[in-house]
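FAQ: What does the model actually see?

It sees only this:
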Amino acid sequence: MAKLVTISMPDDYKEVWDSFQKIARREGKSASGLIVQLIKDYVSKHSENPVTPLDKWVEKPQLVLFPTLGDEPSEKKLAKFPPEKLRELSRHALEYHNMSEWLLTWMERHEKDHKALNYRHPHCPYCRGED
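And it is asked to produce this:
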């Protein structure tokens, strides 16, 4: 059974809303169905999102947002961090480095030996992933 839910939008969105309904009808879809799908997509993309929302950063200026590993490190960016945050960042970066090296070693073994010999090693993360 469907539940009636009300949403509000500014008056100046009426034209957009009317166009949305017209396009939905033209495509043989319901406006409600499209909105529900948009909500489901949004929830699936954001419910497990570990990123800190910007509003938390604005509310708490002491909150430090670390650079991502995809960012090229630069002295200029890192010089802004207090010593304890630099130590934390350094420790995490080292842990990522060590884990990456460990995984690369297992990946090479897996590709060269395990797959070639049809062998499953109990400690290989790539053999375990093939279950």
